[in-house]
Amino acid sequence: RWSEFKRMQAEDMLQHVQNKVFPFLKDLNGQESNFTHHMRNAVFIIPKPALLVEAVKTIDEIFELMLEDKDNFQDIQGDVYEFLLSEIASAGKNGQFLTPRHIIKLVADLVQPKLGNNIADPACGSGGFLLGAYQYIVTDLAKKAGAKDLTPDEDGFIRTSIAAGLTENAQNILQATLHGYDIDATMVRLGLMNLMMHGINEPNID
Predict the structure, then answer these.
(1) What is the rounded CA–CA span in Å between residue 66 and residue 63?
(2) Beta pairing partners, 121
(3) Burial class (CB in 10 A: 0-12, 13-18, 19+), 52
(4) Whole-prediction pTM
(5) 178-180, strands of its sheet edge to edge
(6) Torsions phi, psi of 181, nearest 5?
(7) For residues 105 and 155, is the Cβ–Cβ distance under 8 A?
(8) What distance in Å separates the CA atoms of residue 18 and residue 37, rounded to the nearest whole number?
(9) For the chain, what is the mean pLDDT?
(10) E strand or H helix at 73, and its extent?
(11) Of 150, 132, 137, whose CA–CA distance to 194 is shortest?
(12) φ and ψ at 178, to 5 degrees?
């Protein structure tokens, strides 16, 4: 449990993450999954116990804030991940420049993707456009189902856990029709995790 994990001694915490948690995450969706395939050569890169303890403290503070809004937990969790991605990419440290969310929203509004459309991003990076299409479709379905009081955020996206209300059939169609590709293995991993953090269990990113 997190409540126990965050109180571990620094060295024990690092050993636990390196030897148990990280191998578990790499195999999260089972041996045959796309996620496991791309995580095969991933390396845990926090080298010092003290650095991991600081990261855990920061995550714990964010987690406490997230618990205050349990209804929107998955959306907030995804937002936190996207914020961390934007911090990593803000200076193009990896030669990657992520598309700002308001531009993604503009493109989604222009294209107006529908459930069942095949949607592909040939240079998907962390999956921002795929996520924008997903959120556009899910919001449209929620509106058609009569959802009220859907308040957009500063970029125009609806920030409620409406994906949780999708029928299993609609969720399966959405997962099967979103496809992303990137030349950078690290970005593929970030994109897979980004979509998974937003509720897309088996993203198609290669």
Answers:
(1) 5
(2) 180
(3) buried
(4) 0.76
(5) 119-121, 178-180, 204-205
(6) -140, 145
(7) yes
(8) 19
(9) 83
(10) helix 73-89
(11) 132
(12) -100, 125
